[in-house]
Amino acid sequence: MKFKIACLQMDIAFGNPEKNYHAASRMIDMASSQKPDIVVLPELWTTGYDLANLDGTADEGAQEAKVFFHEAALKHQTHFIGGSVANKTEAGIENTMLIFDKEGEFAGKYSKLHLFRLMDEHLYLAAGKDKGLFSLDGHKFAGLICYDIRFPEWVRAHALQDVEALFIVAEWPIQRLEHWRALLIARAIENQCFVIACNRAGADPNNTFAGHSMVIGPWGDVIAEGGEGEEILFAEIDLDQVKEARSKIPIFTDRRPELY
Ligand SMILES: NC(=O)CCC(=O)C(=O)O
Q1: Per-domain boundaries in the chain
Q2: Which of 35, 48, 121, 223 has the maximal Cβ count within 10 Å?
Q3: Cα–Cα distance between 33 and 43 in angstroms, integer?
């Protein structure tokens, strides 16, 4: 099965959800002219990393974001991997990805598991406990958020559940661009699956972000890659390539988990 993907590599206004909702709507309308099957947004796209003010700007139960994606999915008949939003829960503020299918139905959520200390996440955010697995059109996928890509054992756990594509949403700074590219390509090759990674563009008071959203095939081939600025990255993926790669080099059969 083929899917046409649109990654919204948006600039994000610091601590300004209203402005960011407008910007996202505008980009979704633009992306829709190419009739994508799946639209992907970046990490914390409603607030950016204005963590100190999340008490005032976080979305209670992610309700506003849920209504937004429900309506956008119905309007454009497109699946949404809704980046992530600051989600006020009983456990604290989580960094939560929402998935909506093209009928506007809630299809899953994932709250970031690994908090990134270098950007103070551990001071303001609560770590999630979700698995992050979901299905769209009968295919199994997983969601990951930014720093998660440094944990190959977490990504492997998804691959062992027959996931065919990993959707990664991020606010990854420019100074570690080469880590971003190398880690994404490695996660695709070692798990023999597609990697669809949507990063933000622009800057906030503390960081300039890398852009370079990427769509990578199960052989590690870079199908599409963004530049540094705001843009919509389009790519088509063919999930049959996952079976092909896994049957040519059967690493899932050849693993020796009893020894490691
Ligand atoms: N938002 C993040 O999780 C950033 C992760 C990052 O920059 C890294 O190097 O890892």
Answers
A1: 2-249
A2: 48
A3: 24
